[in-house]
Design goal:
With 469 residues, the protein is α/β, with parallel strands linked by helices. The chain is built from 15 helices and 22 strands. The protein is 35% helix and 17% strand. Strand 5 and strand 6 form a beta hairpin. The strands form 7 sheets. It has a 7-stranded mixed sheet with strand order 2-11-10-9-7-3-4, sandwiched between helices. It has a 4-stranded antiparallel sheet with strand order 12-14-17-16. Helix 3 packs across helix 8 and helix 5 packs parallel to helix 6.
C-alpha cells in the first residue's frame, strides 16, 4: 500500500504541467544531465565508513578539502540548511551578545534573525538605488568608509553581493577598507556560487578577500535545494568558532543525499567548460533579442549605480506602467508555459543556470517577442481579468528605498509599549517583507514610512505575497 500526501500528489501534477523553469533550483529538474537513484536507497545516517559532518575526519573531510581547493578558500564547509544557516553561523562566530555590527539594509531575513537572537546593535549601510527601476544598486565604498569611521567598535560588516537582481558591489575595495580598520567582512553571496565558472561573470567575493562568503549551490548550480557552502578565508575570525556555530545552526542529522549532491555539483563544475560555453552563448543570444523589443528592456551594468552585473540574471523590465511585473509573470506562465523566479513592481527575474537548454532560451525570447507585438491587446485582457482593479493603482518603484525611522534595536522592540514612547506613531514589532526575495521592508524597532505602508498595501492588492511576522 502506498500513502501519498496531498503535497506529494500536487508535486506530481506540477511535473505533468512541464513548465519551463526559469527559477530555482539550478539543476532545473534536468534529469538527463544530473540525476540520482531512488533517494530512499541512499538515505543513511553516520554509519561506519561515511564520516560525520560535525566532526569530519574521513570522506566528508576529503570532499570539503577538495571543494576548498576548487574555490581557493582556506576552508570550505558544506551547508545542508541553506545559506540561512551559513549567514547565522558566520555572524555568530564574530559577534557576541550585545555587540555591534554594520549590516546592509537589503540583507536577507536570516541576517536579521541572528541579530535578534544575539541582541546585536546595528548600524545600517544603504545601497544606492536605481530610481527608475526601484532596484537596489551597489554599496558605495565611500559610504562604507564613512560608516566604519563612525563605528570603530563594530565587529563586522555584513553585505549582500550579488543581489537577487544580479547587482555586484566593489567587494574588493570594501574589504580593503574594512581590513584596514581590523574589521571582518561577511558576504551573503547566495546568488553567486556560479561566478567561478567563467570570467564572463564578476569576480567572486572570495576572490575579493572577504573573510567569510556564503553561497547557495542550489540557486544557480546543479544541486538539490537547501545545499550551500561557506568559505572561510579570514585572519580576523576564528575558524573554531565558525565550526562551533555551524554545528549549532545545522541539523545534527545532516542528509547524506544533500551532501552527495554538493559533491556531485563540485564534480560537475570541474568538468563544466563545454556546458558553460553553450550557456553563455544562449544568454547572449537572448539578451540580443530582448534588446530589440519596444515594451521591455533588461537590467545591465550601464547604470553608474551598478559596479558589476551578473548576466545570468535576466531582469526583464516593463517599460510602461501599464503592465506590472506580476502581470507579465502570469502571462508567461499561463500562455507560454514559462515559470519565472519572481515578480517585482515593474519587472520579473528569469533565473538561468548552466543546465538551461537552448530550447528554453528560445521559448522565452519568442514569448517576449509575441507579447511585445500584441502588447495593447494583452494589456486590455489583463485589466479585464483583474478582480482587484478597483483597488489597484500604479505600482511605485520606490518600495525598497523608502527609509523608515529606526527608534530602537530589533530585540528592544518587543519590550516597548505605546506608553513608553514619545513618538506619535507606532513602533513596529514585526517584520514585513515581500516574498521572494525575503528582504524586510519594515524591521522591528522602526517607525514605518507612511508612503511605504501605502505602497505595501498596493502591492498586496495587486496580488503580491506580503508576509508579516
Amino acid at each position: 500500500m502506498q500513502f501519498k500526501s496531498e503535497l506529494y500528489n500536487k508535486l506530481l501534477d506540477f511535473r505533468k504541467l512541464n513548465r519551463y523553469p526559469f527559477h530555482m533550483p539550478g539543476h532545473k529538474r534536468n534529469s538527463n544531465e544530473v540525476s540520482i537513484v531512488d533517494p530512499f536507497e541512499i538515505d543513511i545516517t553516520e554509519i561506519e565508513g561515511f564520516d560525520n559532518l560535525h566532526n569530519p575526519e574521513d570522506i566528508i573531510k576529503r570532499e570539503m578539502d577538495r571543494a576548498a581547493k576548487f574555490y581557493g578558500s582556506k576552508k570550505s564547509y558544506f551547508l545542508v540548511n541553506g545559506s540561512t544557516c551559513g549567514n547565522m553561523a558566520a555572524i555568530s562566530s564574530i559577534a557576541d551578545v550585545g555587540d555591534k555590527i554594520i549590516v546592509a539594509r537589503n540583507c536577507h531575513k536570516s541576517v536579521y534573525n541572528v541579530i535578534d537572537l544575539l541582541k546585536l546593535k546595528v548600524e545600517y549601510l544603504y545601497p544606492e538605488i536605481i530610481d527608475e527601476y526601484g532596484i537596489a544598486g551597489a554599496y558605495k565604498p565611500e559610504d562604507v568608509e564613512q560608516i566604519i569611521s563612525e563605528n570603530h567598535d563594530a565587529k563586522a560588516i555584513v553585505i549582500t553581493s550579488p543581489t537577487y537582481e544580479g547587482v555586484v558591489s566593489d567587494v574588493e575595495t570594501i574589504c580593503e577598507i574594512a581590513h584596514n580598520n581590523n574589521m571582518a567582512v561577511i558576504v551573503d553571496s547566495a546568488h553567486g556560487a556560479h561566478f567561478i565558472l567563467s570570467d564572463s561573470f564578476p569576480k567572486s567575493a572570495l576572490q575579493c578577500k572577504a573573510d567569510i562568503v556564503i553561497e547557495s549551490l542550489h540557486k544557480t548550480l546543479p544541486s538539490l535545494t537547501q545545499t550551500g557552502i561557506l568559505h572561510f578565508n579570514s585572519e580576523i575570525i576564528k575558524q573554531e568558532k565558525v565550526e562551533k556555530y555551524l554545528s549549532v545552526f545545522q541539523s545534527s542529522s545532516p542528509s547524506y543525499i544533500l551532501m552527495s549532491s554538493i559533491t556531485n555539483c563540485i564534480n560537475f563544475m570541474s568538468e563544466s567548460s563545454p556546458y558553460v560555453d553553450k550557456y553563455l552563448n544562449n544568454i547572449c543570444n537572448l539578451i540580443e533579442r530582448i534588446n530589440e523589443l519596444e515594451h521591455f528592456k533588461l537590467l545591465d551594468d550601464q547604470s553608474e549605480k551598478i559596479y558589476k552585473f551578473d548576466i545570468s540574471k535576466i531582469v526583464i523590465i516593463c517599460c510602461g506602467y501599464e503592465m506590472a511585473g506580476i502581470g507579465l509573470m502570469e502571462i508567461l506562465r499561463e500562455k507560454y508555459n514559462l515559470e519565472m523566479e519572481m515578480a517585482a513592481g515593474s519587472y520579473v527575474i528569469a533565473m538561468t543556470s548552466v543546465l538551461d537548454s537552448e530550447e528554453g532560451f528560445l521559448r522565452l525570447a519568442e514569448a517576449l517577442e509575441d507579447i511585445d507585438k500584441n502588447y495593447d491587446e494583452i494589456i486590455k485582457l489583463q485589466y479585464n481579468r483583474n478582480v482587484n482593479k478597483e483597488k489597484c493603482t500604479k505600482l511605485s518603484n520606490s518600495i525598497y528605498h523608502l527609509k523608515n525611522e529606526k527608534v530602537c534595536e530589533i530585540f528592544e522592540a518587543e519590550m516597548i509599549s505605546s506608553s513608553d514612547s514619545n513618538c506619535s506613531k507606532e513602533i513596529s514589532k514585526k517584520y514585513v517583507y515581500l516574498y521572494p526575495p525575503g528582504i524586510p521592508l519594515i524591521v522591528p524597532g522602526e517607525i514605518p514610512n507612511d508612503k511605504l505602508v501605502k505602497e505595501i498595501n498596493n502591492y498586496r492588492n495587486n496580488g503580491y505575497q506580503v508576509i508579516e511576522g
